[in-house]
Amino acid sequence: xxxxxxxxxxxENDNANFCENCGESLREHSSFEYQEPVKPAVQNTIEGAxxxxxxxxxxxxxxxxxxxxxxxxxxxxxxxxxxxGNQYSQTHKNFAKASLIMSLISLVGAVFLVSSGYxxxx
Length: 122
Ligand SMILES: [Zn+2]
Fold this sequence. Notes:
The chain is mostly helical and 122 residues long. It is built from 5 helices and 2 strands, in the order E-E-H-H-H-H-H. Strand 1 and strand 2 form a beta hairpin. The termini are far apart. The site of zinc ion (ZN) has 8 residues, from loops.
C-alpha cells in the first residue's frame, strides 16, 4: 500500500503511478526518497558523537595534579602520552599541548615568585 505524500490518501494498488485522489505522481516521490542519502549522515553523526571526549576524562586528568607527591608526574606522563601517541585524537593532543604549556607557565611563574621572595619556602 502507498500513502500519498500530498493528500495522505491510502492507495491500495502498489503499482499505481499517480494518486487517485489528487493526481500527484507517486513514482517520482518514492524514488526520490529512496535516493536520499540519509544513512551516511546518520552514521557520521554517531561516529562524531563517539569520538567526542567526555568531560570526565579531561576533568579526571586535571584532578591528577591534586594527588600529593606523584600527582604532577602522573599528570605530565598522561599528557605526554596523549600528545605523542598515534592512537589518540587531535582533541586529546590539543588539550594535552595546552595543558602542558599552562603547567610550564605555572611552574616558571612559581619558581620566579619563590626566587623573588614572594612565597618564602621556609
Ligand atoms: Zn494524493
